[in-house]
Amino acid sequence: MLNAGGEEDTMEEKRFLTIHDASRLWHIEAEELRRRCAEGRIKGAKQVRGIWLIPQ
Description:
Blueprint: E1 16-18, H1 19-26, H2 30-38, E2 46-48, E3 51-55
Antiparallel strand pairs: 1-3, 2-3
């Protein structure tokens, strides 16, 4: 099975949050969260086709 990054998952399926969902969950403005992702400050976050995906 391919994950959101187009890579094959092994044992378990990885699950991701969107910027919108993560910002609501973490009480952080979406733009601030995008900036942190772009700076590499959110571990495991990756951008796929212009959309940031953040591991749960």
